[in-house]
Amino acid sequence: MHVALVTDVDLSNHHLWLLSNQGRSQAAFYILRGLLRLGVEVSVVGPIDNLLGERRLLRTYLGLKSRFYERVRRKAYARQAEPELVELSSNRITERLSTSDHDVVLVLGNALPIGPTGFGGGRPIAYCHDAPMVGLLDFYPHPAFANPCRESRENFLAFEQAALRRCELVMYSCEWSAQKAIEGYGLDPAKVEVVPWGANLDATPSDEDVERMVCARPADPFRLLFFGVEWQREGGDIAVAIAHEMNRRGLETELTVLGCTPPIDGPLPAFIKPLGYADKFTAAGRAMMEATLAQSHFLILPARAEVAAHMLAEANAFGVPCLAPDVGGIATVVVDGINGGLMPRGAGPALYADFIVRTMANPAAYRALARSSARRFKERLSWEVAVRDIKALLERIV
User: Fold this and answer.
1) What is the residue range of 253's domain?
2) Could you give the CA distance from residue 4 to residue 246 in angstroms, rounded to a whole number?
């Protein structure tokens, strides 16, 4: 099988990946690497750079339009959903695909260029992403999703619906996303599949390593890990409140913050240990992340909006159970009592603390939950499993 992989990310240079888009960029990287390891022939198409080229008038017009919406209307304008740019992108990708003798087109990322009539060249088209735009609008707190101008909203939805209806296969990372796409775009459920994304790690611990780490975790202090880039959306402030509640109850608790710097005015509470952003593509970043996961008792992600966070799978790979609310696609990843605790949406610090205290009161129960978390990772949440499933689904439509 020869796959033409269409991406809007330069998979050869991780230094160009946006911090806000690390999860999806890394997912595309691991899908590509996984397919190659399974013996699939892959031709990478994209990203499409300098789309406007010498079209100075169009570039100027789009710039003025963007400033008008942002400064006058106080709305977000999405240039990538502009019909003329979508058409240009579709044509450019179609040209590149015409030189590839592929069996199937796999699109990772921006679906909009699939919408126009070109692109496929008679080959089946598959799409793989974490969430559809119809689910993200008015859910994610970023301006492009929470406060888009009406024109961008309508263009996004129209182009994505047209794109997904042209695909023979649509793969999402969680049940929530799949249902949003089916209900919002009227897709045939038979062509929509759920393939949970894996842990963005080059290497994961062996069973023996996990057992050693789990047994080496001391009861004192109790270590919570908040692992996220976006403090407010991912509930960093709630994580602090949970750690404070744990200490108030007499269980000495340390909250390690990995991935960002807590935006807290004044001195940080003594129980917070900020580590900043860890670049997993550097030896130092990997070492810091691995050491932190190995020592943590629970990963806590009290997110206000989330699809299916990679850090949940990454924690499970190290035998670290996860605590997260039933928000967005989290329920596909966190199964209550199997690899952590699935909390009610909007749960306060007391409910998280109750789960932790109850679990940690029985060391054998905690170790059993940690081992079960590692098994859940190996059985369902690794890129090895995900890419194997993606390959099988591509073969089905070929």
Assistant:
1) 207-380
2) 51
